Amino acid sequence: MVKEKWYLRSADDVIDYFRSHGEEGLTTQEVRSRLSRHGYNEMAAAQRASRWQIFISQFQDFMVLVLLAATLISAFLGEYADSFTILVIVIVNAALGYFQEYRAEESIETLKKMVAPIALVIRNGMVQQVPARSLVPGDILVLEAGQKIAADARLIECQFLEADEAVLTGESLSVRKNCYPIAAENSSLGDQNNMTFSGTTVTRGRGKGVVCATGMDTEVGQIADLMSAIGHEETPLEKRLEQLGKKLVWSCLIICLLVVITGVMKGESLFLMCMAGISLAVAAIPEGLPAIVTVALALGVQRMIRRNAIIRKLPAVETLGCITAICSDKTGTLTQNVMTVREIYINGTSYETTGLGYEIQGEFLCNKQKVSLQAESILDRCLRVGVYCNNSVLKKNTVSIGGSWRKRTTEFSIEGDPTEGALIIAGAKAGIWRNDLEKQAKRICEIPFEPERRRMSVLYEESPQEWTLYTKGAVDTILDLCRYQESATGPALFSDDDKQSILAANAQLTDKALRVLALAYRKISALPVVQSETENLECDLVFVGLMGMIDPPREAAKQSIMVCRQAGIKTIMITGDHPNTAVAIAQELSMYQAGKSRVLTGAELDALNDREFKKIVNDVVVYARVSPSHKLRIVRALKQRGHIVAMTGDGVNDAPAIKEADIGIAMGKTGTDVAKEASAMILTDDDFATIVAAVEEGRGIYDNIRKFIRYLLACNMGEVLTMFAAALLGVPLPLLPVQILWVNLVTDGLPAMALGVDGHDRNIMFRPPRFPGESVFSRGLSHKIMARGFQIGFSTLGVFAYVYFIKDDLVLARTMAFTTLVFCQLFHVFDCRSEVASIMDVGFFTNKYLIGAVSCSVLMQLAVLYIPVLRNVFATVPLLPTDWALVLIVSGWTFLLTILKKILWRRTASRSVFSRT
Ligand code: ATP
Questions:
Q1: Which domain holds residue 19?
Q2: Which residue's C-alpha comes closest to atom 30 of ligand 1?
Q3: Which residues participate in catalysis according to the annotation?
Q4: Closest-lying ligand 1 atom to the alpha carbon of residue 335
Q5: How far apart are CA 713 and CA 719, in angstroms?
Q6: With a 6 A CB cut-off, is 293 part of the ligand 1 pocket?
Q7: Could you tell me if 197 and 160 lie in one domain?
Q8: Do residues 545 and 574 share a domain?
Q9: For residue 735, what is the DSSP state?
Q10: Is the CB of 456 under 6 A from ligand 1?
Q11: Which whole number is the average pLDDT over 786-810?
């Protein structure tokens, strides 16, 4: 099929071709019919492993295959019951493995769905957010800085629009876009400046385009599947465990071989010993460990989703527990991002506004007296500048109170930037509405807000050949561009004294934690010929006034910052706002202590070289008036000082710092696609407290992984030791092959998984962060595993030897050893729940999964002892109360001892662990 060359045609021509409309877009009905014709806007998905394939893969383990082969041989030799039992156990084990892996796959799929891209389109005459997959040819795409473009589109409107097309063209510099047709017949992608392509990103400006190709028809769809998707990226811990697993496999195999050889030399039958050796290898090799780690990580990730944190890269879960510094944006993360204009400063006079949040009822007061806007023409002008120079939309929603039919009321909400929303609301309080203003004047173009420029301007045609530029932005930036000041008699020259008094007023407002914008305008007599000249219009402005808005700190942020302090994590505020505003908010949040903490502005940071900055970086708590590019330096300096850094961001230019940080965090609500794509974690509620919750979860997940590693390895070691020591001592096999496999099934599967979802230690956020390179066996875990492994092995063997030699009953001795081994492990699982607290502190019944798993294991063991058919299969005899007493004392005494020891240890340790601040 020959591809249509949309870049040759005019914008109107392309709109007509697709039977669309630049202002109205398509109708919902039309979109539906085009969707059925063109299909969804998605890349052909890579085939997912089917459930059946996952199940079959459980049998592909080498040792399981050897076991199955041996089972087949034993069936040929007439050992039907044994073969059947082994087969059932292998299948149940495979089912467990399948369940674990399937859950892991499912959670990764859920994650993919949660970060599914969205697109801004005009449909039915309204701008709306839709899932990117629902885009169809003819849709009118609205493009904004930071967006990932979701389909190929022919541009129909551009305001300083630039796109990063490196994924398609390899060109690292952003490409400036326009809407004019291109004459050159065979333009390469890089030269098609009136087109935007799926998979590329908008780096600057705004624009609109009509969608020409979706899904596999797009340029990116045709060359490769470049859409980034979340896959299962192995975490460092998983990699280390895989290496450890390999070592364990070899050591287990060698020991099993030794068991077989020694057994045969001591006169046991070769076939029995081979079966025992293979069963032991199957039981002792922790083949399920990586899968349980993945499940623990994946389930943890799901818990994080419930707490509003989406993990995009699985390794981040581990890093979260190591974080020593969190660099957070102020606006929206530490504060609520619900702005309300509180004070307006004009020509030496301060006005107060009343009314909270998005309420449009409110008054303007001067010295507590209500003022009329007719009498205060400059105040009126100031509010108008704020409403003109604005892209936010005030939405009117009808909501019902107390049931749908009782009472209906109107609520307002803001769509767009909350800073601009505050200006719209302030205007509405004075009866100035953007819709009305735009009926009288026509918007010609916009010079968009960018954090680096800290200002925004719009140009309106108010009457033929009369244009006005409205500008707003950070006070220091705007004052430098002003030449006049608005007065009752019109613009007057702006003196140095005027500037000083405005700066003093600004300092007063910012000291009250208000975010301040300066508003200005300029009459223009001739329009610039080319777009690049438009930026030059921002000079010789007429200063009108200052507007100070409150943005209260988030409720939970103060508490979370305290938690961070206790957890050894430094919190740092990074903002483009004025230093006074930043410090005032930091003080409210108890982040900043006058005299102790340091604040650094972007300009001061620029004056320092890297060595000087590295020296002081640990003292700085607030960075103000910084641009996104400074964030990269901050992350690097902190990393050089040994910190593990989490960095938040939302804009296009935050992406490098987000990538550089150990954990890059993007805002789910206000973040751009570029920031989200660079991040390892997304906060769906943009809230600082969510970062801290995620750190807590990260620490908890790592603890749980340590818990079941401790459990599984100690149990497996106990099993191997029992068999190995028995072989060395020349006593008969203490456990038969089916019994070994049974122990593996009863104790390894469910209880280990239940540990993986255990709750967190109460002191989890009272301890310092974990060292990133730390071995999973550090802090005494290897000793604990070995000591417990020996205890389990020798208790089992001791019971076996005692019954065998004293009572001279091999079947009873095996039954009791078998049961002792199972109960040793079931007692041990409770011990693994905490490394510091006793089970009484943790609460015996707090992990209901574990109680369920252990009860299930106990019942299964009882079934094997008391159901006659199973007794035959497992070669057991029913135990008498005296036998039980021995089994329970031997397997449980260490458990009781550990409880006692822990209680004593905690008494002394609590002073150091729990009193940390
Ligand atoms: P952060 O989100 O990083 O805490 P911030 O939101 O305060 O910081 P920016 O959005 O970069 O930082 O804004 C920096 C400054 O630019 C603000 O202090 C304000 O003076 C000005 N500003 C912010 N938004 C706008 C806007 N929409 N139009 C014009 N000026 C703006």
A1: 6-45+111-228
A2: 473
A3: 329
A4: 4
A5: 10
A6: no
A7: yes
A8: no
A9: S
A10: yes
A11: 91
Q: Taking residues 682-702, report their average pLDDT.
A: 92
Domain co-membership, 733 together with 774: yes
Residue 650: CATH number of its domain? 3.40.50.1000
Write out the DSSP string of 180-203: S----TT--GGG-TTEE-TT-EEE
C-alpha to C-alpha distance for 277 and 735, rounded to whole angstroms = 11
Weakest mean pLDDT among 151-165, 227-241, 445-459: 227-241
SS3 letters for 805-816? HHHCCHHHHHHH
Is 417 near ligand 1, meaning CB less than 6 Å away?
yes
* Residue 159 Cβ < 6 Å to ligand 1: no
Whether 328 and 354 map to the same domain: the answer is no
> Which tops the pLDDT comparison, 557 or 595?
557
pLDDT of residue 81: 61
**Does 455 sit in the ligand 1 pocket, CB within 6 Å?**
yes
pLDDT of residue 333: 93
According to DSSP, residue 215 is labeled G
Nearest to 140 by CA among 41, 208, 42, 199: 208
In a domain, 74, yes or no: yes
Query: Region 554-570: what's the mean pLDDT?
Result: 93
- In a domain? residue 698: no
Would you place residue 861 in the very low, low, confident or very high pLDDT band (cuts 50, 70, 90)?
very high
- Taking the centre of ligand 1 as the mean of its atom positions, its distance from the CA of residue 474, in whole angstroms, is 7
Distance 462 CA to ligand 1 centre (A): 28
Do 814 and 748 belong to one domain? yes
Which CATH number is 428's domain given? 3.40.1110.10
Residue 910, in any domain of the structure:
yes
Average pLDDT over residues 378-404: 79
Does residue 695 belong to any structural domain of this protein? Answer: no
CA of 451 to the centre of ligand 1 (A): 6
Residue 84 and residue 183 share a domain: no
> Whole-structure pTM over 0.90, yes or no?
no
Write out the DSSP string of 478-505. HHHHEEEEEETTEEEE--HHHHHHHHHH
Q: Is the CB of 387 under 6 A from ligand 1?
A: no
**How many domains does one find in the chain?**
5
Q: How close is the Cα of 631 to the center of ligand 1, in Å?
A: 15
On whether both 371 and 467 belong to a single domain, the answer is yes
540/395 same-domain check: yes
CB 891 within 8 A of CB 788: no
